Amino acid sequence: REVTTREERGHPMDSYVVQREVLNEVRLEEVAQRDTSTTGPSVGERLKEFSRCSLPKLKKTVQRWVPVLDWLPKYPFRENILGDVASGCSVAIMHLPQGMAYALLASLPPVFGLYTSLYPVLVYFIFGTSRHISIGTFAVISIMVGSVTERLGPDSNFQVNNGTNTTGSVDIDARDAYRVKIACSLTLLVGIFQILLGMVKFGFVVNYLSEPLVRGYTTGSACHVFVSQLKYIFGVTSSRYNGPLSLIYVSCTTLRLPQTKIPELVVSLVALAVLIVVKEINGCYSKKLPFPIPIELIVVSPLGSSNTVPGLIRTPDVNLFSQIIGDAFAVAIVGYAINISLGKTFALKHGYKVDSNQELVALGLSNSIGACFQCYSVTSSLSRSLVQESTGGKTQVIYIYTHPGYLSPSLLNLDMGLAVSIGFSILTVIFRTQL
């Protein structure tokens, strides 16, 4: 580059002219002297660096896979303990009757809902990264498990001949024992799928889940939960439906007003009214109250007593895997979608991050270990997570106390709705980047 002052050309002072050579591609490479040699580390050097072990590196790796070792030593006891204890107790008492009710949706005896409310929560406390989601029984997953247990263990397989030409009775004990075996085997396979997906970093799919999709899918899940509880509110029986439009079929068979049982309806409406009123009071006087009124605990506490004992350790039947592998993969994906949707929603609201891959591993371990204690598949619960947050919960210490994505999960089944939602989101990204 040659710089000639304008003074030399007879122009005023403090001005200049820049003359540049016009370069073609070949000349540009000569002037720039581009280095075409490889300067990065070789494959062998990268492998050597990866296999090298040091104390800081080992500590960081262990803390990444076992997050409790990272955050628990830093726990601000005075600031958080009061809210965490109140929130944990509220969720724990709420979890008891809810666990028993959801076990019925899975076509299992109620006591197995209590088992599912205990062991997976402790596992997630160690390996999870979300501070506000409540792991355990959930209506949607319970319904999916129930469809498998009823398909492989129908009542017709357990008929007892009474010696007459009429239809015999059903051996309830044998049927329930076999259905528990099916549910535990399904849960173990679900956990294995989730752990493997976490190990191969399948959590990258979360990058394609936009905020509207996450909120829409969460709302769609809430619709399924609400409809699944209508038969208990009205005191009627309802057939089980699966697949697309099951939400509409269940609603039509449940809303049979002439068959409504008045006592059940009155209790439900009174409980809902009390919950809504006290929740508004908690919101209005949040700055004056030392901690929110645990109204959920008060409402459900009469239902929360139980004399059952924890489930024994039993190995699930791996011989059933070939019959349930498709169902297990669907439950694994839907359970993770619900879990990460809620996790991202609360993380965004409270300003922290959840590790999508670690959430897969944590959920998989909760299912795998829980299956050995006669638990069935778990994920995070919408209602309990909201209670956990609204009653002052701030950290994972709680656990030891206890858009298009919105149309499709509601009208389709949640597994198909998830596929449609992710596909739409990916197409949106492609159109925005390519057009």
Automatic annotation (TrEMBL):
Keywords: Membrane, Transmembrane, Transmembrane helix
Main localization of the protein described in the UniProt heading: membrane
Top-level taxon: Eukaryota
GO CC list: membrane
InterPro entries registered for this protein in UniProt: S04_transporter_CS, SLC26A/SulP_dom, SLC26A/SulP_fam
Transmembrane segments: 102-127, 182-204, 319-339, 411-431
Membrane topology: Multi-pass membrane protein
Compartments where located: Membrane
Domain SLC26A/SulP transporter: 82-300, 315-399
GO molecular function: secondary active sulfate transmembrane transporter activity
UniProt-recorded name of the protein: SLC26A/SulP transporter domain-containing protein
Organism of origin: Periophthalmus magnuspinnatus
